[in-house]
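The freezer alarm interrupted the setup, so I double-checked each line after restarting. Inputs confirmed:
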Amino acid sequence: MSDLSSKSRGLLDAARSARPTSAARERMSVALAARIGVVAIGAPPQPLPGAPAPLPASAPPIVAPPILPAPLASVAGVMSTAKAAVIGAVLGVAGVGAASAWPDTPQLPPPAILVAAAPSSSGARAVERAAPSSPVVDTASPTSVVEAAPPPLLEAPRAVEASLPAREQAPSRRAAAPASPSRAGETASPSTDSRAPALKQAPSAPLGAISIGEEIASLSEAQRSLKQGDGARAIAVLDELAARHPSGVLREERLAARVFALCAANRVEEAREAGQRFLAELPASVQAERVRASCAFSPGNPR
Amino acid sequence: MAVITPDLLDFPALRSAGPAEPTSVTSAPPGATFQAIYAEHLDLVWRSLRGLGVREASVEDAVQDVFLVIHRRFGSFEARSSFRTWVFGIVLRVARNHRRTEQRKGGCAALDAVPELVDSGPGPHEEAVTAEALRELALVLDQLDEAKREVFVLAELEQMSAPEIAEALGINVNTVYSRLRAARIAFEAAVAPRNGVRR
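Predicted 3D structure, all chains:
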């Protein structure tokens, strides 16, 4: 069946057996964990026996959960508890069944491999990438928010789900997308991409290379503002992020956040417009349900 | 009134990935953890990125980019394709991005030989051989245009089926076949000089 020469076959077979070295594996595992912001990832969020009961709708703002249980302190020592906690909280590492250490890094490299970014304001460049071949990884800047004692790790998602309207409460609904072929909604580019899972990606921006750290930092700043009820500040942060990274990796999250921020600032009409634009473009977004649950689609303004 | 402030970036609940794919095709069963997905797909992501033209010096970043997207997008995986096909869709786009960045920077393939510290694992010779083969393969593939290269890598390096390739690329199966035929011809033409005098 193959039209290829035996030499070509041989080359392909040999190349197919190539694997990253264990040193490379370790570098990638550690760097990826830093970028995702989690050290421990367990089972996805599931209702556990004995989980805290859902909070009433008037629950106070959600406390960002730290994500490093004590056994992982040695890992945290490499990344710095503060940074990991903030990043992890922002990224909502609350999905836990059994939290377990990253399997490929039973022994973490010495701290020299992870270079801590100097503490700075959220506007500063949060993640710098050294020369591509370097294993140095900068984690996001720590902020003044340092979570000390870890509350139950499930608290945040349970609280989130409890505070949403009843139709949102089943965890499986959270990821449920509209029945419509939603891949088209996942990308801003035309139909050639619609059959394949698409990336939100501007043609000129290398994916993740520079912006992701800043995007996370800005989104976490916006989230903090929202939790303090400061919608105006959140909007300002998000607009600044939009100017800097209009087509960033986390554009979806930024657009959803803007809807929430407009709601928080009681700019309901603008929130409605933004929410409708969001759902028109990104109906399959994982943020779609939350956007629908926001003030943008309050009763009387059905979607 | 309490403002609902959903966590903007939390990992969405994993949805059911549907019935498991038979044998060699990897799937993401319900409850699959990200770390299991990472462990299972790391090698093929790394290797296919290299095949698709990501420079050795950039591939570790590109691998992370792929898994970052997998991590974020997992909630929208709809099981209309196999999980591996979905992963390859992401790999393709990350590779394209890196290639375009390289082109803008005027990257030179000759600089690809990044010295890797000698790994003290078993079979160092075999590892060196396969690593060199992958470098060689990437250099040959550099001479194919993007469309041919992608089909060729998915078919001949990653050994995906034509329907899977069609799904990953967003083209129809007939196009896969015709493009693969052309890609094989182009590949043979590109590899032939290298089998003789080394440049």
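Quick read of the result. Chain A is about 40% helix and 0% strand.
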